[in-house]
Amino acid sequence: MDEEPSAAEEQAYYDLVKAFMAEVRQYLRDLNLIIKVFREPFASNAMLFSPHVSPALRHPPAALSPAHPCVFPQDVENIFSRIVDIHEVTVKLLGLIEDTVEMTDEGSPHPLVGSCFEDLAEELAFDPYETYAQDILRSGFHDHFLSQLSKPGAAIYLQSICEGFKEAVQYVLPRLLLTPVYHCLHYFEILKASVSDASHNAPH
């Protein structure tokens, strides 16, 4: 005999989805903090990490960085990896989930949030997480990060932004950079709970 999911079970799943959406919105705020407050000052200073440019690189190719010809993008990427790509896929995911919840028919037991992950996975949209985790968790990352901050002019520049900014970069930023790694693991937990609830609510 088929068992229809109870109203309480349907509500529990819907509450899970709503809670996840709230978490993703908070996660986006964290990503914006990393990108706007921390990454942009690094990316916008032409000589922050490469103050001694060799004569051959005084006028590097325009493709290196059209806006700031002396910026070395790899220096910034070594610290922030693919954080901008992760922000982009997070915006897409939240938009898909919001659309799914909004378009769910009243007769449907719950919004099929798993399909949002499937759509993005088919586009390989989550690949930046793999690269990011490898970069941030690699052996020697923290030492390299500190060595970048100790380069001539870097400390002075960071101190000039605002009082306490250099200390925030040194002590707060490394912890913030772990946020996407933890959030990616949280995705797996949410998906497991989602699949479990959906299976439990499905007619038998």
From TrEMBL:
Which Pfam families does the protein's record reference? RhoGEF
Q: Which PROSITE patterns match?
A: DH_2
Recorded hits in InterPro entries, A to Z, give: DBL_dom_sf, DH_dom
SUPFAM superfamilies on file: DBL homology domain (DH-domain)
Q: Name one GO molecular function term.
A: guanyl-nucleotide exchange factor activity
In terms of superkingdom, the source organism counts as Eukaryota
What protein am I looking at?
Son of sevenless-like protein
Q: Where is the DH domain?
A: 12-204
